[in-house]
Amino acid sequence: MSVRSSIRKFLAIALTFLLTAAAIFLPARLSQWNDRLLLDEPHILQEEREGFGESVGLTVAEKVILLRTGGLDSLTVGDAEMRATYTGPGGENVDVILQQEKGELDADEQRKLTERITAVQAEVRSLQVMGGLPLIWDTESPVECVDRSQILYVDRETQISFLVYRMTLNCPPYSLELSVDAQSGQVLAFSLFWGRDGSLTWGPRGSSAFGGAWRDYWGMDSVSAGWYNEHTRSILEDVELRMQINGEYNAVGEVAYAYSGQSIHIPLLCWAYNSGRYSLHWNP
After folding, report:
1. If both were cysteines, with which of 26, 76, 110, 211 could 227 make a disulfide (CB 3.0 to 4.6 Å apart)?
2. In angstroms, how far is the first alpha carbon of the chain from the final one?
3. Radius of gyration (Cα) for the chain, nearest Å?
């Protein structure tokens, strides 16, 4: 065999090897590069990017179902830093933290925050009237926002995304942590905390309207007929009494809803501590 023939044979083998390797490894590498670009692109993580969910047209009920059924990736934005947790193509978790410049809110940011707090307070009052929240504050209560962040959820299968912001409102003796759909302004979940100087008041009907209130508020089709059993009622109304009887105490329940042929179970739980601290959690 001539030297020229040997060289041609070697080059053909090398080219075949390179093409095979590219076919195997290049798509994954390109996907990783694309994922990194998505993570490093700051406009994805900036606050007030509420347009992500607006074009999708998901209902509030559909967002609640997606949050409960999983399959979502999330990008979380705080005030002091931008933190992203992303599931890569191989199932690995990729964490990115981008520091933001600390400082006081400027006038426009403060205005937007004030508008958001006002809107959330209106939602809280509406839920109190409907029976979806106990009567903890009135219209004159001086509520303060003590913590806030923003999360972009992306469905892995469909790439549909929607924005949720979290906010903690404080007015002693109560502190209310809320997850709110950024598009509609509606509450998706809450955690309520209080101490010995507070107690839950549900009005003359007690907590009997709770399940139906959230059915109507979220736009679900129906709520299970037997949702208001003694166990659920006790979680909503008796956490302080149970602590007096049993000492440190917690209980877990759920309320089942139906929407567009799907069944979704929303968890409900309460905690009571010997220190005299209590909490009630809906859709945590």
Report:
1. 211
2. 74
3. 25
